[in-house]
Backbone:
């Protein structure tokens, strides 16, 4: 999607949302829970041909929090 081509339908009509700002969270955040009281700011990519959407956690500091707090996708749920 970041390359501008939809990974689902192949359209080149992929739109990028605005770079997220702390004071303007309307473009989306991932809540990281009150235990470490933070949200991860995300930037959206949307294919306006088929509607597929992806979002990316843009700040390395947010990704570091997720690395320490969230399990690997391959780990079992308890
Ligand atoms: Zn598409």
Residues:
């Amino acid at each position: 999607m970041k390359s501008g081509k939809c990974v689902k339908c192949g359209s080149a009509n992929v739109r990028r949302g605005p770079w997220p700002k702390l004071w303007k969270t309307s473009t989306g955040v991932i809540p990281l829970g009150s235990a470490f009281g933070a949200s991860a700011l995300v930037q959206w990519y949307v294919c306006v041909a088929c509607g597929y959407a992806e979002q990316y956690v843009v700040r390395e500091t947010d990704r570091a929090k997720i690395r320490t707090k969230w399990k690997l996708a391959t780990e079992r749920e308890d």
Residues 6, 8-9, 11, 47, 49-50, 52 surround zinc ion (CB under 6 Å). DSSP finds one helix and four strands in the chain.
